[in-house]
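Table S2 (continued). Query chain:
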Amino acid sequence: MGLLPTSVSHSNPAIPLPRSNSPAAGGSYAHHGHATSSAALSSGRSKGGFEKMRKMLGKLVRPSRWPTMDFELAAWQMTYLCVAPRRVYRNVYYHKQTKNTWARDDPAILIMMIGFLSSAAVLWTSLYLHSFSPIAWAGLALKMVFRDFIASGLIISTLLWSVILARLTFELQYSFDVHTNSFFPLFLNLYLAQLILAPVVTRNNWVCLWVGNSLYLVAATQYVYITYLGYNALPFLIRSELLLFPIVLFLTLYVVSLLGFNLSKHLLEAYFSGLNSS
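Corresponding output:
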């Protein structure tokens, strides 16, 4: 999504597609009116969406195209995803009107995320595993990039797309864009902050347990909330607040974990179990 800084309010008053307060008969998520439905169907055909995704991936794998990408805009988006995520989604509808796509047409933010994860792999390998093996670093980088970010993102975004947007033949790429946005604050919490706090959060006392478990709660809550904002920005969806329900589950598990289960200690041991010997 080629989003630009703006002072327009999040409610997008100029959008002629009001939300309805009544649930649709077809389920929890629905679209409004024949005009809205026709616009969504005609502008978001699967064939066009996959073609746009193919072109964007072509830019991603060809470094010669990188100088044409807007890394400054991507950096702006990443900053506001942490401090004011609503601003990132303010211009989604206007982006659709000007570029005829809801999804990003510039993979700069993907390249930056891959670079950040690869750098984090170097730091975890050297500072946590105390290893300077290129093989260990490469293995961890592949794990973080392809499993943690891309594979999990494809699973989550495809699941949400199939439940919410598939009947509108909406762009699957937009769902992955939402995942990318949601993943960045999680990355800062679990891949950077947790690395810095690893000597503390893995200790066997309650205060350290509380710090580590709170870190996971913040990361998971931010991921869910930014995902909700991404779908709430689509003017033809209703009851998108149901996407916030996992936060209730996370809070419940968090309270239970404070009775003595150290998330950081157990998850880090499991995550690096196959790499400690490298």
